[in-house]
Amino acid sequence: MAMTACQQSKLFLKPGISEKEFALKCEEIMYSLGAEALWYPMLVNFNKNSIYCTRGDHLPSEDVILLENDIVLVDYSPMLDGKWGDYSETILIGHDPKFDQLIKDAKQIFELTYAYSTQAATIGDLFKFCEELIHARGYRLLDPYGNIGHSIEDGSNQDKRIYISPDNAHIHLKGRKWAIEPHIGKGEYGAKFENVTAL
Known about the structure:
alpha+beta
């Protein structure tokens, strides 16, 4: 559902739309696909707001307008039958070499980390692997809490989430569902991709 909502909502990413207008459209699409609720509010970040990871730091704004050449970070969190969906993409609008490279690097770092999650034993193993990829390419991790993802829970159990961060290095990955989402940045812009894996 989250992935389908992302593909459908991309059609509305036209220069001149505001972050808030697009966020409302994304929510409307998720509900039309059968979402019962959103376990986390819709994240829509244009341009320099792409460095923000949470709703706490940035709310979709009526005043931030999509440009002809821009970068867009979106994050979908629908709920169905009490289960969480969690999916994110960073999208290039128009043409801009710096955005294009940032997005390509973010996607590759995500894909390599996602693939390695099936081999890693612990959160510490997975975090170290991802952190080395990020630093090797000259980026920094943007998440304010220093994580690259979290466990997927049921219902409204946000307080039970376990973060993929050094604080939880000893926790084993197997037997849980995880959202993997390394949010990277360089300079004033950020990018991330996210999907859920069951280990």
